[in-house]
Amino acid sequence: MALLIRAGLIAGLVVTGLTYPFAALAGMGVKVGSEALENMPERLTETAPAQSTYVYANDGKTLLTMFYEEHRKHVDLANMSPFMIKAIVAAEDNRFFEHHGVDAKGVARAFVANQKAGGVSQGASTLTMQYVRMALQNSARTPQEALEATEQTAARKLREMRLAIEVEQRLSKEEILERYLNAAYYGHRAYGVYAASQVFFSKSPRDLTLTEAALLAGLVKAPSAYDPATKDRKAATERRNYVIDQMLKMNAITAEQAVSARRSKIKLKLSTPPNDCVSVSSRHNDWGFFCDYFKSWWREQPAFGRNPLEREENLRRGGYRIVTSIDPAIQRYAMKNVLGKERRGSAFAHGQVVVQPGTGRVLSMAVNRRYSLDQSANGRHSDWRQDRDVKGNYPNTVNPLLGGGDMAGYQAGSTFKIFTMLAALEEGMPLSTTFYSPQRYVSRYITAPGPATCGIHWCPKNSSESMTGNQSMWSGFGKSVNTYFVQLEQRVGAEKVVRMAERLGLRWRTAIDKKLATKEHASEWGAFTLGVSDATPVEMANVFATLAAEGKYCEPLPVVSIRNPDGSHALYQKRLIAAPRCHQEVKVNVARAATDAARCVTGYGSARGSCGGWGTSEMVYGTLGRPVAGKSGTTDGNKTAWFSGYTPQLAASAFVADPDNPEHVVGSGRSTMSKYTVAQTLRDALKDKPRENFKPPTDKYVW
């Protein structure tokens, strides 16, 4: 039987002359055909076609964007309009349910037509053979294999015929139809009937009408030639009506349906599915920075490939359903409070990140910028040393201003004092540890000559003479007393402070930071406690989220769930990729003690000691009206202004700086901006949440 089928195939190929003149095929001879057949694969190798990845907000409903090379989403035959199934058979292979992969009548008909035309005027490819061709293209591993899948040769046609028979023996007609409809190209980057329904009609394939289904089925033959989105729809209409006529001949529709459908004008509801972060809708453009952070995170995950490029390709082809961590409500509050203080057209970037303690999930990334590649209307660069024609990165940019990517961040100022306090508490120094703190302190650290040096020593000073006197961790942190924290850093050792920052997620991105953080230099990095190193808002928000979670460190995480195309959860080494990645980094009571001192900053007040009468950011508790701790931070000359604050439920970090020009001073007028932004955002986000209190530390960490 197999020999008969094989002989029939070869004879059929010689008879048809589908891609070569008949004389050329006859010249090849049956013997050559037989040899070619012997060397051809007997089973079709099928690789799952690329599918679009859908990315949602944390409600699982609000679409953030999509990632794809070929816009495609698999849909079962049961979820397609019956009209679509009938139309594709009528358009491409009206004997589909009668043949077994190769249509002998079609081959004969094509041969006669081609002989009359003196060339190739008709093909004889069945719908199954077309599917084989698509599968071969999709599974091609080299350019040569891709070429062999589509080149106009007798060998290609022979291979398609053989594999079509194999497919028909293995799959049902319904399975072949489903795979074909999900693989075919319809134009406008739409692969498969789901994408085509969305692109041309903005609807589900189950809702396609007769005329819509006929139009889509007609596109498969030549998507560009019959494109209905052009001004002249004559070709598209004629092709659609041809399909309708074929459906009538097959008795797939009634004569009344055919007449009505032919009279109908083409009505499109075109849509362009978003692709990548620059395609986030204008309504949610501010989500672009979060999307960019998510993409950066994805590129770092070994579960998705051997290197960043392979992982990104997998994102565009893998067909994942990703629910991210961004909270639309919190993002809305954050943007309102950011833009209420610094307009988008300002050279100064004002941004804020909100993180969930205990999970590390990033709930919001807001900044006074538009996520856009179009810089044509941007303002001039703020660095006067740049060429006059150089544009600044405002209001439009795609720079990762809030974290992720390769931007170093911004000097975080006195917020870094948290690392010194945590290192000291961990070394057994209680909150009551007291130093006399003069206006200027001559440290033991050796530094290059400069405004903060006394000979060869680094001599930092306080921002106010009112800070002079005995200070504890409560008052030293609450008032941000520089000379207290330099002494505390000397006592615990600067290297331990640097390592504490690393343990809580900080990474060094500039050459100078990388050098000073090495074992060789870290012990002499005295200025570290005053925040001379760069950090990103995501990193700093997560540091204070660790304190809110009582010392449980969680990696910053931009996702809630990741599902494969079949609906299963994405795993790596048998663990959920989207699950929080947490561990106890500092002891519970160390974190509680640090929080007790951080309460002094906000005006909420400590539970176990004296804050010394005032704090640097008392408006935070006054605005929020519930238990809150945190730390403000400014650099020398007010080049940046930060505030990081937290409640037991949420942590946030905000900054003001000029990303284009670090020397551009934000000024004292912007010194409280981040404090109010954090306080107002936490207030808005928690307005319907129960009040939760911090737990005080044990006596061991107090006295």
UniProtKB/TrEMBL annotation:
It catalyses: Preferential cleavage: (Ac)2-L-Lys-D-Ala-|-D-Ala. Also transpeptidation of peptidyl-alanyl moieties that are N-acyl substituents of D-alanine; [GlcNAc-(1->4)-Mur2Ac(oyl-L-Ala-gamma-D-Glu-L-Lys-D-Ala-D-Ala)](n)-di-trans,octa-cis-undecaprenyl diphosphate + beta-D-GlcNAc-(1->4)-Mur2Ac(oyl-L-Ala-gamma-D-Glu-L-Lys-D-Ala-D-Ala)-di-trans,octa-cis-undecaprenyl diphosphate = [GlcNAc-(1->4)-Mur2Ac(oyl-L-Ala-gamma-D-Glu-L-Lys-D-Ala-D-Ala)](n+1)-di-trans,octa-cis-undecaprenyl diphosphate + di-trans,octa-cis-undecaprenyl diphosphate + H(+). SUPFAM superfamilies: beta-lactamase/transpeptidase-like, Lysozyme-like. Residues 353-650 form the Penicillin-binding protein transpeptidase domain. This is Penicillin-binding protein. Residues 64-247 form the Glycosyl transferase family domain. It comes from Actinoplanes couchii. The lineage of its organism: Bacteria, Bacillati, Actinomycetota, Actinomycetes, Micromonosporales. Keywords: Carboxypeptidase, Glycosyltransferase, Hydrolase, Multifunctional enzyme, Protease, Transferase.
